[in-house]
Amino acid sequence: MIHIAIISHGHEDMLIESQLCGLAANPAVTLWVKDNLPSVKLEAFCLQHQVRYTKEKPGMGFGENNNFLFNRIAAEFSLSAEDLFIVMNPDIQTNADMLRSLDQQMRSDSTTLATVNLYKDANFQQTDANVRFFPSLLTPFRVFKIRGLTEAIQKHSLIQNCDVDWASGAFLAFRPSHFRDLNGFDTDFFMYFEDVDICYRSYCISGRKVRYYPGLKAVHQAAHRNRSLLSPHARWFLSSFIRFVLRRSVVYPFTRGKISQSL
């Protein structure tokens, strides 16, 4: 069974218009929506389409919300090694056929963490930089060259299925046993870099990076947050970056091969 976790932070109009990322009322997948800013309209829409909806514990961060949904799924279903747990942003547009293909290719590759090729438009012309290199303590010295604190991998060079350092939390697919081994997302990251962190811990534990499938495509209609130096998003972004690179340099080298995120 394919379980899709979607967190809404005031995205009710987007989710309703997109018919829940194009997956509403599709029996091939099970949709789970956690409403971080509870909306009567979204709750009614989910009820109408038999989508599992919860507005419990609003105000949590990205990772904690997804951990909450994973635990809710595990409590309701006996998750097996054959199931798939997908973390998906509300601004993703996809279809069940692509998700089934992802499931099959992950089985064929015996991989436990994967992503797909995200685009910014429905014609699949403008690529989304959803696969990147891990940042390090040296990254700030290269910030003008790479135009940010993380460096995108040039996807035009990735024409075959391959492994990449990390993939955006806009779309990450886990085998449930691996998500459990990782103890889910590290909730010390309220927002930003929780995806980098879980991909790096996955590499430390399994020795394998994120499997990237360039032939499997979805649309990511990303609306980037304002990161002016005075905005809370800028503060979260910078503090999360510092937290990750310090852990990568000081903590994680001593936890390689250990199944834990406890610090």
For the sheet with most strands, the description reads: 9 strands, mixed
Mean pLDDT: 90
- Element order, helices and strands? EHHEHEHEEHEEHEEEEHHEH
Topology, number of strands:
12
> Looking at the structure, what is the overall shape?
globular
List low-confidence stretches.
259-263
Q: Beta-sheet strand percentage?
A: 15-25%
**Helix/strand-derived class?**
alpha/beta
Give the helix level as a range of percent.
25-40%
Rg over alpha carbons: 18 Å
Number of helices: 9
> Terminal Cα separation, in Å?
33 Å
Briefly summarize what is shown.
By secondary structure, the protein is an alpha/beta fold. It is 35% helix and 21% strand.
Structure description:
The C terminus is likely disordered. This protein has 263 residues and is an alpha/beta fold. 35% of the residues lie in helices and 21% in strands. Strands 1, 2, 3, 4, 5, 6, 9, 11 and 12 form a nine-stranded mixed β-sheet that branches. A three-stranded antiparallel β-sheet has the order 8-7-10. It is built from nine helices and twelve strands.
